[in-house]
Design goal:
The complex is a heterodimer. Chain A is mainly α. Chain A is about 85% helix and about 0% strand. By secondary structure, chain B is of the alpha/beta class. In chain B, about 30% of the residues lie in helices and about 25% in strands. Chain B has helices spanning about 1-10, 20-25, 30-35, 75-85, 95-100, 145-150, 175-185, 230-240, 255-265, 280, 285-290, and strands at about 35-40, 50, 55-60, 65, 100-105, 110-120, 125-135, 165, 195-200, 220-225, 245, 270-275, 300-305, 310-315. Classes of the chains: A mainly alpha, B alpha/beta.
Chain lengths: ~170, ~325
């Protein structure tokens, strides 16, 4: 009897925890998208106001930004300095690093990837325009992610526990 | 000297080239690199090198060839990667330089830019979609102006005379002016050292990189880099108290007025102008007006007869 009770608690608890953590991932994604938007705004100011060279501007942005988004900037700056890549290539590699450590979805990463080829390679006005555009698109993405996170929180939290309970009922 | 020229090109120019071109140029023998004057990258066209007096290309196997059509064809990506390397992937940080049509590298070497010009209110706003790049190697030829020194500072005279170097392009005016700045600033047995101001509108004389002269213009020389000549001459006059002002290629009305103002203030002006000879110079209304006003006492006409910087004749006015 004790064994059955322990099994029940473990199954329901385990699947419940899985559901909660999946819901948490959706919420973390919202936070990371907000962080990305703020950091792009910081980068835009570094480029348009102080004309800081790109590798230094990226490092400064990394310092201003929370982990894991800071990885994108640190990695990109490092690749620019060490590997003699173009900004687009370095940015793409930075995104690779970010994707493995963040909760961002492929659609978010695709949006960021589109920024790579233009990064640094035009005058301040053009840089400002395209960075503002990416930020606007991120704002839309944040709203979408928020709605998805609300739904996901409800679905995954309940679904985890319900799935656990169902498994227990079926097994018993 | 030759070894040093090769090293300068390997360290200060080759690293900026896109990898395919870099490999080809880096593989050139040292003696060719030593005489390298220009590298021209034009999209879709063979890479072109000016080595000494000759235009040469490099074929895709890395061999020099005088048959230009056999040379390695530069791709759009080569141009993009080269401009990205030159600008540290930060074209926005070089807006002013791009507007002027060139970027100066460390060492004073210049990269001329060509592409689609964007205009705004009758002024060049920027260049985009770069189509070709021209690397021009900055070279100092120290003491090349020494044979001219006794024309600029005749024996028995305290300071230098107002002097104009006259020649068509490519005869070494800029190199001579740079060395004159260095010699006058250093002083030697012929001349007492003097404070010199160099007004370097196109960053050719001192080859400034981030405001610091990369070429030797002497210890008593101040450089106004990328500064319009006329405004620079007046600024220098007011703030730097130079004994000599050196600037390149005068010819506009405001330049003439500024030269006259310097002369009235007792400051010597040494400059240059495009013309084949003194007679041709006098056909140019503004310069002829200046000569009539006695602005210049000495004219040194240059040619390439015995290589750049050969003196063709010396003109004395007034």
């Amino acid at each position: 009897m004790l064994l059955k009770m322990m099994g029940t608690v473990l199954v329901i608890g385990g699947l419940g925890f899985y559901g909660v953590s999946r819901a948490g991932s959706s919420e973390r994604r919202v936070g990371q998208l907000i962080n990305l938007r703020l950091s792009l705004n910081f980068l835009e100011k570094e480029i348009t106001c102080t004309h800081t060279p790109l590798s230094r501007a990226l490092l400064k942005t990394a310092g201003f930004t929370d982990w894991p988004v800071s990885l994108l900037y640190k990695e990109t700056a490092g690749n620019l300095n060490k590997k003699n890549l173009t900004a687009g290539e370095a940015w793409s590699q930075g995104l690779g690093k970010l994707s493995s450590r963040s909760d961002l979805k492929p659609v978010d990463l695709e949006l960021l990837r589109s920024a790579g080829p233009q990064l640094g390679m035009s005058d301040t006005l053009e840089q400002s325009k395209f960075l503002a555009l990416i930020q606007e698109e991120l704002a839309v993405q944040i709203e979408r992610a928020r709605r998805e996170a609300d739904t996901a929180r409800r679905i995954w939290t309940y679904a985890g526990f319900i799935a656990g309970a169902m498994i227990v009922l079926l097994v018993i | 000297m030759a070894f040093s020229d090769e090293r300068i090109i390997r360290e200060q120019i080759i690293p900026y080239l896109a990898l395919p071109v870099r490999k080809l140029v880096a593989g050139l023998p040292g003696e060719d690199l030593t005489r390298l004057e220009e590298i021209r990258l034009r999209c879709g066209k063979p890479v072109l090198l000016k080595i000494g007096e000759r235009d040469i290309s490099i074929d895709p196997r890395g061999n020099l060839t005088t048959k230009i059509s056999e040379g390695y064809r530069v791709e759009q990506d080569d141009i993009y990667r080269t401009i990205a390397a030159i600008s540290d992937n930060s074209l926005y940080a070089f807006e002013e330089e791009i507007r002027r049509g060139y970027i100066t590298l460390r060492g004073g070497h210049r990269v001329g830019l060509a592409g689609q010009i964007v205009m705004k209110k009758d002024e060049v706003k920027t260049i985009k979609d770069f189509g070709s790049l021209v690397f021009r190697v900055a070279r100092e030829v120290k003491n090349c102006a020494e044979p001219l020194l006794h024309h600029v500072v005749p024996p028995g005279r305290q300071g230098p005379l107002n002097t104009i170097l006259i020649s068509p392009p490519g005869c070494g005016k800029t190199t001579l002016l740079r060395d004159l700045a260095r010699l006058l600033s250093n002083g030697n047995g012929l001349v007492q050292p003097v404070n010199v101001a160099v007004i370097d509108e196109r960053s050719e004389l001192a080859g400034c990189y981030m405001g610091v002269p990369q070429l030797d213009v002497g210890p008593r020389t101040d450089v106004l880099d990328a500064c319009p000549k006329a405004a620079g001459m007046i600024m220098a006059l007011r703030s730097l108290s130079p004994r000599v002002i050196i600037t390149d290629e005068i010819g506009r009305r405001e330049d003439v007025d500024a030269v006259v103002e310097c002369l009235n203030a007792g400051v010597t002006v040494i400059t240059s102008a495009h013309a084949a000879n003194a007679a041709e110079l006098q056909k140019r209304p503004l310069l002829s007006e200046m000569l009539e006003r006695g602005a210049f006492k000495t004219g040194i006409v240059l040619s390439r007869r015995y290589g750049p910087g050969s003196v063709a004749s010396i003109e004395r006015w007034g």
